[in-house]
What does this fold into?
Amino acid sequence: MLKEILQESIIKELRLIKRLSTKVPAGAADFRPKENVRSIIELLQYLSGAGTGMLLFWQSNETEARPFLMKLRENAPQVTLENAAATFDAQIDLVNQIFATITEEDLATKDVLYPWGTTDKLGKAIIETSIKWLTGYKMQLFLYLKQVSDEALSTPDLWRKTED
It folds into this structure.
């Protein structure tokens, strides 16, 4: 049961982000509220792997997260406003593939390594990384869109509205 809850939570966040990616007005992809803060397109590029990067690392035989994640991020610049929705659809497919290999027992008993060097049980680690990262950066994207868009985005757009 926990497996389905975690999987559905990640997929819902990806669907919300996908929908928000379609709300970026023309010419606003490079918007950032100030220097040294991610732009809208950089947020979408980051989010394109935030839900699956750690899951893929934990599936791999790699022992160091940072180099593994940096290699995954090499594809991020290929995400554009034009292909963002398709990118998030592909991420949903990847989440389903990954979770097909995870058991309830894995969630409760498998120790996994965070990029900062500590370990945790897989179930908790998924919440602490994939789910929190997607949720947090989705909020940032939503707030940027509120600044640059004439569209009336509101609470349902952030938490539950995955389709128009």
Remarks:
- The longest strand covers residues 111-113.
- The mean pLDDT is 94.
- Strands lie at 111-113, 119-121.
- The chain has one domain: 2-25+37-159.
